[in-house]
Write a structure and sequence with these properties.
It is built from ten helices and five strands. By secondary structure, the chain is mainly α. It is globular. The strands form two sheets. Strands 1-3-2 form a three-stranded antiparallel sheet. A two-stranded antiparallel sheet has the order 4-5. The two termini are 30 Å apart. α4 packs across α7, α4 runs antiparallel to α9 and α8 runs antiparallel to α9.
């Protein structure tokens, strides 16, 4: 028997957050179908709340809407990761160059503040060291978002943020294969320093290398294990 709808959650806000978190942590696996009735029961909310949440997740590239088949979690493949990385390197570096040209002192201060928070966030979950901590994931997202926030071109910024949302799947699932000898703190510091110095070319080069290294390490680890990212998520 289906559980009663939680009226407080019929507002839709918490439903989206919970669905997104379940996808990013692999509780809802890549390619998994997302039938409305099951989700209504699982998340104790209205069909309208589920529909709105799935539409928002589809805009972010985390779920796919298929004609006459409903929604499913996006598939995760090496080819898609490569394509996503190329798109991110092109669009995010463009947004960063615009930010360096257009960003004011308040934007610069916000980026410095976000970096300060990131520096103090524990990277791995103490209860599950194979996973990034939620605190670090949020701080990392906010730092990179702060860097691009001064872009001034809403179209470019919207595309850049959507690509970053799509990459969140890979970033979260890459922890078991992560390069733990990598000095990611130094990478972040170098990017920030070049931004503060208003060196658009150097900042773009450093950001592209930062994005590419994560992809290269993930693909390398998957090749060694002869696995696809979907297999990693199911562990």
């Amino acid at each position: 028997m289906a559980r009663p709808i939680d009226k407080a959650r019929a507002n839709r806000s918490g439903v989206y957050d919970e669905l997104r978190a379940d996808i990013l942590t692999g509780r809802l696996a890549p390619g998994m179908k997302l039938p409305f009735n099951s989700l209504v029961d699982q998340y104790r909310c209205s069909i309208g709340a589920i529909r709105e949440a799935l539409q928002r997740l589809a805009e972010q590239g985390l779920v796919i809407s298929e004609w006459q088949q409903g929604f499913r979690v996006v598939d995760v493949t090496v080819d898609d990761l490569r394509d996503l990385t190329v798109a991110r390197c092109e669009i995010e570096t463009l947004a960063l160059r615009y930010a360096i040209l257009n960003g004011d002192v308040a934007w610069e201060a916000a980026a410095i503040s976000a970096h300060h928070v990131l520096q103090r966030a524990p990277r791995y979950d103490p209860d599950d060291p194979a996973r990034f901590s939620e605190e670090w994931v949020v701080a990392h997202q906010q730092f990179h978002s702060a860097l691009l926030a001064g872009c001034g071109n809403t179209r470019i910024l919207s595309i850049a943020n959507a690509l970053r949302d799509s990459s969140e799947l890979y970033r979260r699932w890459s922890a078991p294969l992560y390069d733990r000898d990598r000095d990611i703190e130094a990478e972040h510091r170098a990017i920030l320093d070049s931004v503060v110095a208003r060196d658009g070319q150097l900042a773009s080069d450093l950001l592209a290398a930062h994005i590419q290294r994560t992809t290269d390490k993930l693909i390398e680890g998957l090749s060694e294990d002869d696995e696809e990212p979907a297999a990693v998520a199911s562990r």
